[in-house]
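## retry 2 of 3
previous attempt timed out at serialization; input unchanged, resubmitting
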Amino acid sequence: MSVSLPPLVVGTMVSTILYNRGRGYVAAVHDPQRTDPSRRHSVTPAFDVVFEDASVSYRLPEAVLRGVQWRVYPREEGFADAATLSRLLADAQAARAQAEAAARMAQEAEMEAIASLRSDPAWASLIQSDTGDGTIAAKNIRALLKTSFPETKFSVRKLHYGTLKVTWEAGPTRDAVCAVTSRFASGTYDAHTDCHGSCLTPWMRVFGHADHIFLSRG
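## retry succeeded, writing output
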């Protein structure tokens, strides 16, 4: 016995668990014809979906919308008319413009911070470079530790690409040394997704960085 699937047309309500998108509606259908005589082969339709969270996904294949992470609702359970789609698309456009403006402001602020660090006489003794292999970061860490703790001898070694190890005997606490070295550590970890990443601050872009910096106090 075959199961009749709800049709995918403009206004059809869908939902997905992906990226916390939730509920949305088909806003446009691309290549709706199943065959293209000029190309003599079938054409797979694609769908734009506008979500109630003011986001939009473009040109999603039907196979995706029919997948296990999506649900397509029959018309009687939910359907968006032209006015609703227009409002949702306007909300999405406004949200996108707001996000772009925020991104521009953040980029401008970062560039200003970088310029300020480059010209700050307080850091004139440090090497300026944005390399992430740890080489420049190691040199700058040595300089800062020597200034901060002149009576303690530190060893700052590069274990491999992007990884440094700082060791010392007695003297300052681990937290005190970490206050110096942490500004060079760019590696991040997301426990929710179990993924490693990198986050660069203006300081790191000017004075170098390393993915991981290990501390060992004897």
